[in-house]
Design goal:
- The structure is a single chain.
- The protein has helices at 3-14, 28-34, 52-59, 63-69, 74-87, 135-154, and strands at 18-22, 43-48, 92-98, 113-119, 124-130.
- Strand 1 (18-22), helix 2 (28-34) and strand 2 form a beta-alpha-beta unit.
- The chain has a five-stranded mixed beta sheet with strand order 2-1-3-4-5, with helices on both faces.
- The chain is globular, with a radius of gyration of 14 Å.
- The protein is α/β, with parallel strands linked by helices and 155 residues long.
- The protein is 44% helix and 21% strand.
Length: 155
Amino acid sequence: MTEAQQVIESLAAIGKTLATAESCTGGLFGFELTSVSGASRVYRGGIISYCNEIKHRLLNVNQELLDTCGAVSSSVAEQMAQGARQALQADYGLSVTGIAGPNSDETGKPVGLVYLGVSSEKKTLVKEYHFDGNREQIRRQACMEAFRLLLEMIQ
């Protein structure tokens, strides 16, 4: 069973739903999840918040935080996960923000730096990762770790 199947089955078993907010993965997590038959039982949808304006406007990420920390930070990942959960009225929110490369952003943070967040009504968990590889490899690694982190939070 794939990680995506495990997430769908785990959420369905407890009657819970999921919403996503993706930046550097550009919808890849949602794609992987919806590649599995039955995803509609638990997946409410996702917001691809590639620019800061969308993070602020649709996910309610604090603009001052975006201006001072940049989009790739633990605090932004936390607010993105919470914002996705609230905006799409889901039980869980998952966020991915990072630098997939090949170049860094204007803050000079390293390529491969990714923050993943998972939010529920009770708590929000954020983890920092440093992935190696090219753009596609970093994006794929981020998605796989996002599935693992979500499963950790659900179980």
